[in-house]
């Protein structure tokens, strides 16, 4: 069922039965997250990514002596391979609920993904925004590949800006799987100060330096996103013809489990090991 958290000028809704997702988030009555009418997780404003982020090519990968084959799971795109893990499409439970904060839990017992795990999401609202924490524990007896992240949606128009500094941008194919990387020696603003609407992308950036900023000049506000160091990659999705875009702090690049090389961000959790990440979002005035 939907719940509401509030602190000062900021309010945010969440629903444990819709993938543990956030709904409307407002600051002084202004929408900060993009939502749509409806009860699907695709209508939500933000959802947790666990135990991996974005797509796995052909929904398959090998890990140790296991060949793992997963089912495509995108409710709005039957042609997509498995994406975003399992938390976003599952019921969570409310473990703690107060006026300004909540803790949600999710447990996966095993299946096509052969490693049982549990996840915990902490939501805390402050006067100008919110903080999200996400923890993952391997409940199995074998090492488990792992990734975490957050998938917020932001409203956009022709003037909306995204500002960040990253060293690299991955070029993707038609299936949105990375094929090659373009890199600079030092972090740069790949958007060069141009509006979000000037590019239609589904890409991932590496080597982040500093916060992620979204500005709405017409509303004279912006948001500052500060991911924890473990969320070293940034997925950016700008669909053509829509009134939203996504800036997703994530721990690994897309299809990391199929790339047996360094710097993918893929993590391995030992039996019983727990790992956590976080992000903070804060509204500012322009």
TrEMBL record:
Which InterPro entries does the entry mention? Aldose_1/G6P_1-epimerase (IPR008183), Gal_mutarotase_sf_dom (IPR011013), GH-type_carb-bd (IPR014718)
Provide one Gene Ontology biological process annotation. carbohydrate metabolic process
Q: Which SUPFAM superfamilies match?
A: Galactose mutarotase-like
Q: Tell me, what's a Pfam family for it?
A: Aldose_epim
Domain of life assignment:
Bacteria
Give GO MF terms, alphabetically: carbohydrate binding; isomerase activity
What CDD domains would the database entry show?
A: Aldose_epim_Ec_YphB
Descriptive protein name:
Aldose 1-epimerase
Native source species: Qipengyuania aquimaris
